[in-house]
Every structure is written in structure tokens, then in C-alpha cells.
């Protein structure tokens, strides 16, 4: 007699297949899960490496800014007007610097969030990071830190002080990179294309720029925007008195360095930096990090910390200081609706 076979109905076949899949899933789900977890854990970045990359990006962007200005081939146009009615300029220097800086960072770390003042869909650049860490960085930051990539937001300003750039007021012009971790500024780089000076800092680890020995707040020398001032003069005099020295200047990067002691003779010394109108975060993030590394502060005019993980706008005004009682400065400011300034 021939051996009897086992015949399964279509439903039985389906159940058998599902059982097999279930067994395979239980056998391999743990392996797959651990591999995915391991992959995610590996997606971290070295903050010292990112600092070195940021310095290189700012310098390479600065070379484009300098070259185009010296060739006098700006291709200047307007992006529109600010809330105060001032024209927002756009030049070939902005765009060429953006391409160098943005794509250098993205080609190195494509998974990082990078926010630039200019459009990230501009034609790409094949540049890649040299992986060269400057000796000064190695000396000041001997120990590295790893941070999960999804906690990082990079802000780049390919050309700060475009208005002054078009007027050939070169001392105000900078290129800037900032790295925020969980919204807090941690790495700041401010590069001056026309002198070659670069200020940098990694908060909690080291910096190549220091505060001055003394600051005055009775009254202070206050540095403000020359092109987006709003009614800042009345605001400052109400806070600190009619004898307050007010210094108009271009570029947020320049104004932050005016609070410190950079080895560059092109700065006017200021005690605090005040801005009462709307400002973008790529303008201020790098300076915020550098001040923070020096024990300083940059907040809204109400003393609130600025979050660099979200949208690009900072509408609460700006107060920056170092080596003084920042809260006491906030308390002296007029408590008025900023939109009226």
C-alpha cells in the first residue's frame, strides 16, 4: 500500500505559511533590531571635527566673497525690503560663498540639518572636507566629544553685512558658521575675508578669542546696526542715559567681535550690543556661541535664551554682553512693545 500523504486545505496552507513567517520573525527580529539600533548609534559626529569643518567652510566661503568684491563683479540685486523699509541686497558673493559653504558641509555630513541664508537648491559644489584639523584647535581642544547627528542644527551665513559689502565697507563683512545642539549654540566661527582673521569657539572646550580686561555699563558703549537700527537711539538713551555712546556698525558678526578682544585692529570697542528689530538666526548664532564660550550672554531683550533648533526668525530683539551682570542690563531696558521700535 502506498504511504498516505497529508493534504492541507488552502486555509491550512495559509496558516502553515503564517506560522513559518512568525517563527522566522522571532528568530531574526532581534538581530535586525540590534543592527538598526547599532546603525543609529553610529550616526554620531565629532564636535572637534565639525568645528574644523566649520572653520574650513567659513574660510573657503570668505575667499569667494573676497574674490568677487575685488573683481568688482557683484551682480547686485534686491531680495526685497526689511520690516524697517531697508533694501535687502543679494550679490554673487552671497551665492558663491553659499555654494562653497553649504555643499562642503553637506558633502561631508549629508545627514545634518543645515540652514543657510541663501537657497540650498543652488548649483552644487564638488568640494569635500580636507579632514585637516588646525593645530590651534588640537592644542586648545585636546579631548573630543561625540554628539548624535539628529540633535544638531547647523546655521551658515555666507556673507554677513551684504549692504556694507556693496558699499565696499569691507571691515564689517564676515562669513559665519554655527552648530547648535538641542537648540543651544555650541560651535561658533566668524571669519573676516579681507583680513584673514577667524574667531572660533567650542563651548565648554576652548576658543581662540577672549574678553577684554574691562567693560563699563555706567554708561556703556553700545554697538547697534547702521542699516536696520529702528528707533534704537531713543530706546538706548531711555535705558542708559543721554550720555551713552552709540556706535553704528554693519554686520552682526562684527558687532559681536567688538565686545571681545580679537587680534584685529579694525574693531571699535563696545560694551554691549543691542538690536531692537527682527533678525535672522544665521546672523547671530555663531556670535552667541563665541560669547557663551567666553562667559558672555546673548538673549532677547527680555532676557530669554534663543532657541536655534526651530524656525529662522528671532523677533524678540537682542542684547549681548560679556563680563557684566547681564540680568541687570535686561532690567534697565524699557518695557515697551518692540514693534513700536
From TrEMBL:
<feature type="binding site">
    <location>
        <position position="157"/>
    </location>
    <ligand>
        <name>Mg(2+)</name>
    </ligand>
</feature>
<dbReference type="Pfam" id="PF00459">
    <property type="entry name" value="Inositol_P"/>
</dbReference>
<dbReference type="GO" id="GO:0005794">
    <property type="term" value="C:Golgi apparatus"/>
</dbReference>
<dbReference type="InterPro" id="IPR050725">
    <property type="entry name" value="CysQ/Inositol_MonoPase"/>
</dbReference>
<dbReference type="GO" id="GO:0016020">
    <property type="term" value="C:membrane"/>
</dbReference>
<dbReference type="GO" id="GO:0046854">
    <property type="term" value="P:phosphatidylinositol phosphate biosynthetic process"/>
</dbReference>
<dbReference type="InterPro" id="IPR020550">
    <property type="entry name" value="Inositol_monophosphatase_CS"/>
</dbReference>
<feature type="binding site">
    <location>
        <position position="283"/>
    </location>
    <ligand>
        <name>Mg(2+)</name>
    </ligand>
</feature>
<dbReference type="GO" id="GO:0052834">
    <property type="term" value="F:inositol monophosphate phosphatase activity"/>
</dbReference>
<keyword id="KW-0812">Transmembrane</keyword>
<dbReference type="GO" id="GO:0046872">
    <property type="term" value="F:metal ion binding"/>
</dbReference>
<keyword id="KW-0479">Metal-binding</keyword>
<keyword id="KW-0460">Magnesium</keyword>
<dbReference type="InterPro" id="IPR000760">
    <property type="entry name" value="Inositol_monophosphatase-like"/>
</dbReference>
<comment type="similarity">
    <text>Belongs to the inositol monophosphatase superfamily.</text>
</comment>
<protein>
    <recommendedName>
        <fullName>inositol-phosphate phosphatase</fullName>
        <ecNumber>3.1.3.25</ecNumber>
    </recommendedName>
</protein>
<feature type="binding site">
    <location>
        <position position="160"/>
    </location>
    <ligand>
        <name>Mg(2+)</name>
    </ligand>
</feature>
<feature type="binding site">
    <location>
        <position position="117"/>
    </location>
    <ligand>
        <name>Mg(2+)</name>
    </ligand>
</feature>
<dbReference type="GO" id="GO:0008254">
    <property type="term" value="F:3'-nucleotidase activity"/>
</dbReference>
<feature type="binding site">
    <location>
        <position position="159"/>
    </location>
    <ligand>
        <name>Mg(2+)</name>
    </ligand>
</feature>
<keyword id="KW-0378">Hydrolase</keyword>
<comment type="pathway">
    <text>Polyol metabolism; myo-inositol biosynthesis; myo-inositol from D-glucose 6-phosphate: step 2/2.</text>
</comment>
<keyword id="KW-1133">Transmembrane helix</keyword>
<keyword id="KW-0472">Membrane</keyword>
Amino acid at each position: 500500500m502506498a504511504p498516505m500523504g497529508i493534504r492541507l486545505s488552502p486555509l491550512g496552507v495559509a496558516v502553515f505559511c503564517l506560522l513559518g513567517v512568525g517563527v522566522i520573525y522571532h528568530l531574526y527580529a532581534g538581530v535586525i533590531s540590534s543592527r538598526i539600533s547599532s546603525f543609529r548609534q553610529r550616526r554620531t559626529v565629532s564636535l572637534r571635527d565639525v568645528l574644523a569643518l566649520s572653520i574650513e567652510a567659513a574660510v573657503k566661503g570668505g575667499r569667494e566673497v573676497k574674490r568677487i568684491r575685488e573683481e568688482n563683479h557683484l551682480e547686485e540685486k534686491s531680495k526685497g525690503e526689511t520690516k524697517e523699509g531697508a533694501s535687502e541686497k543679494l550679490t554673487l558673493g552671497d551665492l558663491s560663498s553659499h555654494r562653497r559653504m553649504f555643499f562642503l558641509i553637506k558633502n561631508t555630513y549629508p545627514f545634518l540639518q543645515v540652514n543657510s541664508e541663501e537657497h540650498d537648491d543652488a548649483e552644487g559644489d564638488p568640494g569635500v572636507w580636507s579632514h585637516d584639523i588646525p593645530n590651534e584647535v588640537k592644542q586648545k581642544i585636546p579631548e573630543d566629544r561625540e554628539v548624535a547627528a539628529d540633535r544638531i542644527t547647523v546655521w551658515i551665513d555666507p556673507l554677513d553685512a551684504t549692504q556694507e559689502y556693496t558699499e565696499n565697507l569691507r571691515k564689517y563683512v564676515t562669513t559665519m558658521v554655527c552648530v547648535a545642539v538641542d537648540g543651544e549654540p555650541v560651535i561658533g566661527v566668524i571669519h573676516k575675508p579681507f583680513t584673514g582673521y577667524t574667531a572660533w569657539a567650542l563651548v565648554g572646550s576652548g576658543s581662540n578669542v577672549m574678553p577684554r580686561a574691562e567693560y563699563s555699563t555706567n554708561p556703556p558703549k553700545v554697538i547697534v546696526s547702521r542699516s536696520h537700527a529702528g528707533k534704537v537711539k531713543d530706546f538706548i538713551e531711555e535705558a542708559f542715559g543721554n550720555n551713552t555712546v552709540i556706535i553704528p556698525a554693519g554686520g552682526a558678526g562684527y558687532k559681536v567681535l567688538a565686545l571681545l578682544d580679537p587680534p584685529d585692529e579694525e574693531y571699535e570697542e563696545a560694551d554691549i550690543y543691542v538690536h531692537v528689530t527682527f533678525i535672522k538666526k544665521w546672523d547671530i548664532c555663531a556670535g552667541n556661541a563665541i560669547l557663551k564660550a567666553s562667559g558672555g550672554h546673548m538673549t532677547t531683550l527680555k532676557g530669554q535664551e534663543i532657541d536655534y533648533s526651530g524656525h529662522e526668525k528671532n523677533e524678540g530683539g537682542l542684547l549681548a554682553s560679556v563680563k557684566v551682570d547681564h540680568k541687570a542690563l535686561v532690567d534697565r531696558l524699557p518695557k515697551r512693545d518692540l514693534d513700536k521700535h
